[in-house]
Amino acid sequence: MSANVVELLTIGFGTLLFATILIMGFVDCRRLVLPDCLNLVLAAGGVGQAFIRGDPGFVNAGAGALVGFLALYTVAKLFRRARGIDGLGFGDQKFAASAGLWLGWEHIAPMLAIASITALGFVVIRWMQTGTFDRYHRMPFGPFLGFGTAVCWLGAVVFSS
């Protein structure tokens, strides 16, 4: 493919990724749920990117989905065992799997680190503003997963060029 076609495809896939992440973030903030239909759009876009752009490749994308899902599945199970309540919804786990299709396995750890640190920063700022901290307060994690995904995807695109 010519450089112009690759650039247009990258812009098109990036637009799909960012639009989907933005919508998912708004829905999660309002309803504390990441709908399957939006996770499916995100996953389909990741598969399409792997097929058309070839970055990440199919094996890398599939491994990314598996690692992303298993990482948050493990955290959710350990949290439930330790605290007796759910700390992550199944939608967050599916979001991480879908993000893995976009990023590949090697970008899952940085994506989760960015998401977690950003979420922690949000909690600290809210605590400083309100002066209270409720450890049972439910909070959407989707917007933070989306931010981590966007940062890592942009980094991969910029540094692969």
SSE string, helix = H, strand = E? Answer: HHHHHH
Mean pLDDT, to the nearest integer, reads 95
Based on secondary structure, the structural category is: mainly alpha
- Tell me, briefly, the overall form: globular
- End-to-end Cα distance: 14 Å
Which percent band covers the strand fraction?
under 5%
Largest sheet: none
Uncertain segments: none
What is the number of strand segments?
Answer: 0
Helix content: over 70%
Tell me the domain tally.
1
Number of H- or I-type helical stretches? 6
- Rg, Cα atoms, Å: 16 Å
Describe the structure.
The protein is an all-alpha fold and 161 residues long. Helix content is 80%, strand content 0%. It is built from six helices and no strands. The protein has helices at residues 3-31, 36-52, 58-83, 90-103, 108-130, 142-160. It is globular. The protein starts with a helix and ends with a helix.
Quick synopsis:
This protein is an all-alpha fold and about 160 residues long.
Protein topology:
Layout (H helix, E strand, L loop, with lengths): L2 H29 L4 H17 L5 H26 L6 H14 L4 H23 L11 H19 L1
Helix pairs in contact: 1-2, 1-6, 2-4, 3-4, 4-6, 5-6
What labels would you give this structure?
single chain; 161 residues; mainly alpha; 6 helices; globular
